[in-house]
Amino acid sequence: MELKIALLKGDGIGPEIVDSAVAVLEKTAEKFGHRFIFTPYLIGGCAIDETSLPLPQETVDGCLASDSVILGAVGGPKWDGLAGDIRPEKALLGIRSAMGLFTNLRPAKLYPALRSASPLKDEIVGDGFDLLIVRELTGGIYFGERGYREGRYGTEAFDTEAYSVTEIERIGKVAFEAAMKRSKRICSIDKANVLESSRLWRKTMHELAEKYPDVEYRDMFVDNAAMQLVRDPKQFDVIVTSNMFGDILSDEASQITGSIGMLASASLGASKRGLYEPIHGSAPDIAGKNMANPIATILSGAMMLRYSFGLTAEAGTIEKAVDKVLDQGLRTADLMGSSLDTPLSCTAMTEAILKAI
Ligand SMILES: NC(=O)C1=CN([C@@H]2O[C@H](COP(=O)(O)OP(=O)(O)OC[C@H]3O[C@@H](n4cnc5c(N)ncnc54)[C@H](O)[C@@H]3O)[C@@H](O)[C@H]2O)C=CC1
Ligand SMILES: CC(C)CC(=O)C(=O)O
Ligand SMILES: [Mg+2]
């Protein structure tokens, strides 16, 4: 297969981890006789520095003209003082919206080899957990009306959470279909005891649940869910939730797998073209130090092969290579806790994975 892949390296550790994913994808392509053509485009802070825009039109056009997209991360302290509309993060929301990517699949599983990296006790983790967070990605408070207005205590800033039945139904269907292929258990997470948008979310999910009688459905308030994730993560299989709740709960879920540097994601819409991105940010505290864990981005590349291109064996090869290096005890610093051993650098971990392919 010959495939065009747009690269959005972004800021901070973005370039380091995307380079790792590219190396792994190139080795996989070579092994299976494919040709991947990579084209880089600017996004985020680096785009602001060069063009004064966080999301240049050329980047949007390039992504829409490619077969799929790999993203590193955007943002950093250098751009934190900018107005909301020209911040790096606005570009990430912009490209997800421009590509129509309303679904974000965030799998969180505990690798047996990383059991000691999880902060949870053995009796809680048992033989591991494997959950899939299905996060709505182009609606809710990240996209709602916002601004400043005169309020009770003077000028106030506001952001709005809004969801339509159409938006809830389409993400719900993705989650129910995913549950049908897994253990047929789904938990919808909302704040329906307070928010009107959550009450519509819950009502719509209940109606959808009737169409999937084989799926065991329940709902939970988000504050309870945040607690239950660390109390007993194994109770969950598929979680479906809104944009902001999914963002927050997936960072929490990542840490119980050992590190946020492990969690990949697929941002998907109606077409096969997706955007594949680690769940973490640009990690300015470790950027440029060759310390980042590249596995989340490498596994995002594997998700791209599986979801966008249907290259299941190729995706499996990358996932098995990751399993193998973890089984060998190889670790980047984020997975080592207080161990006195020397951690692997980002490039050394990438080399080990390349060797295992
Ligand atoms: N998808 C994206 O582009 C996202 C961008 N951001 C942006 O990233 C910047 C930093 O945000 P933070 O809140 O610090 O979140 P972050 O996810 O960048 O970092 C949180 C902590 O996790 C560590 N970490 C993250 N990824 C890692 C990896 N691959 N290997 C090892 N350690 C890793 C970092 O060193 C840091 O201590 C901000 O400008 C934020 O807006 C945040 C989240 C998502
Ligand atoms: C940086 C934000 C736009 C979003 C975020 O944190 C995420 O998608 O994980
Ligand atoms: Mg996030």
Percentage of β-strand residues: 15-25%
The helix/strand order is: EHEHHEHEHEEEHEHEHEHEEHHH
- CATH class value of the largest domain: Alpha Beta
Bound small-molecule species: 1,4-dihydronicotinamide adenine dinucleotide, 2-OXO-4-methylpentanoic acid, magnesium ion
Q: For the largest beta sheet, what order do the strands appear in spatially?
A: 2-1-3-12-11-4-5-10-8-9
Overall number of domains: 2
Low-confidence stretches: none
The CATH topology name of the largest domain reads Isopropylmalate Dehydrogenase
Please provide a written account of the structure:
This protein has helices at 14-32, 45-51, 57-64, 88-98, 122-125, 165-181, 196-211, 222-231, 243-256, 295-307, 312-327, 346-356; strands at 2-10, 35-40, 68-73, 103-109, 130-136, 146-151, 154-159, 185-190, 216-221, 238-241, 266-268, 275-276. By secondary structure, it is α/β, with parallel strands linked by helices. It has two domains: 1-106 and 263-357, Isopropylmalate Dehydrogenase, CATH 3.40.718.10; 119-256, 3-Layer(aba) Sandwich (Isopropylmalate Dehydrogenase). Strand 1 (2-10), helix 1 and strand 2 form a beta-alpha-beta unit. Helix 1 packs parallel to helix 12, helix 6 crosses helix 7 and helix 10 packs antiparallel against helix 11. The radius of gyration is 20 Å and the shape is globular. The chain starts with a strand and ends with a helix. The mean pLDDT is 97. The structure holds 1,4-dihydronicotinamide adenine dinucleotide (NAI), 2-OXO-4-methylpentanoic acid (COI) and magnesium ion (MG). The site of 1,4-dihydronicotinamide adenine dinucleotide has 21 residues, from helix 4. It is an enzyme of class 1 (oxidoreductase).
